[in-house]
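Chapter summary example.
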Amino acid sequence: MLTNNENIEKIVYRQAGGASSRNPSTNENIEHLAYRQLRTRVRNTLQSGTINHIVGQEISAMIAEAINSQLAIERDNAMGRLPYERVEGSVKRNGFKLFRLPGLWGRLTLRRPAVRAGRLALPLADALKAAGTGLRDMLAMRFWLRGCSTRDVARELNTTIGAKMSHSTVTKVTNAIEPVLREWETRPVPKGIAYLLLDAIYLPVRRPGFIRKQALLVALGVTPEGRRRHMLGFMLGDKESGDSWSALVKDLLTRGLDRNALKLVISDEHAGIEQAVKELLNVPHQLCVVHLQRNVLVRVAAPHRELFNENFKKVFWVKTREEALRGAGEMQGRWGAAYPKAVQLVMRRLEDHLHFLHEPEEFHALLKSSNLIERFNLELRRRFRSAGTMHSELEVLKLMWSVSQAQEARWAKRPWKAYKRQEREVAAV
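The structure predicted for these 429 residues follows.
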């Protein structure tokens, strides 16, 4: 029967693949086997995600250990005596209590020094609590303003940093910016607004006892040089009526909208908007050509739609009013008999769709349609859709402020494309 040492030597011999020039000693064989077993264990440990978990735990343990040591030092400094030192009338130590800090440090389990009577002042614990809560609240506010619902924000922060937030806590955190929002809501209208764009979207709003879709009226403005676009104001109303649009326009006038500088109002064909513009602004009202184009083309059979659209562009994608009238006459002569309703729709309010031709040519693409405000409203819809039903007008104000700030920052970085083309033409000359 082989001894243990002989068995080990035999195993090593087999693993080595044959005989060697010399027989290794027993200690070398044991060391070799231990090395192979260690390599196997390390490989099993370093699986996908396991190493990250181990490192995270070790880092958290090191941070907790350092904080606990500092808390113990603060306890000794606050008590004014060393452990086991007897001072008559002093507060006695009472061990430690496990606790977790809210916010960023939610995953750290710390040991707070305790005393038999009263409570120790521990500046480090208070500072960590304030810092963790402040960062947590900042992250919650930014995530919510960027498009996450309150429940999603709470869920992600709880999973990531152990914040232990609820969706109602996220709402309270975001409500803290109300003073900033109120100031923004009543800010003066920028000077020199020459072009005013009006449009509305509908969103569900909770009222006492019921939920109802309400109209969110929006106003954008453009300065004469075309470089600056601004979100001017909004109003939440029951519907798009003449009274509701008049209320929004009056608010803009109160905050400094200059009638004398205003040259054109752009919108789709809506009776409430037309009433407010006529009564309060008395400036030309450009109706959206793109809306007209959609309404006209659906009345044309598919085989003729492309040809009809080419004729339509000869009316509205031109440089002068004379060219537009010639294009309209050609449309009547060519398509009047085949599609009378489509042609009649174009001619019904032709002049109201051609006001943009009285402005500089580089602004025609911007002024002939309401695409600018439609694109802004698309961002609003995306944000309101993720938020769901609005529970108060303050929630609407918060989301309007968030989308407006982000959109105006993008506008500031990207001048209007037509203005860029104009600059290139001037540079070429």
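To summarize the output: Residues 95 and 114 are 6 Å apart (CA to CA).
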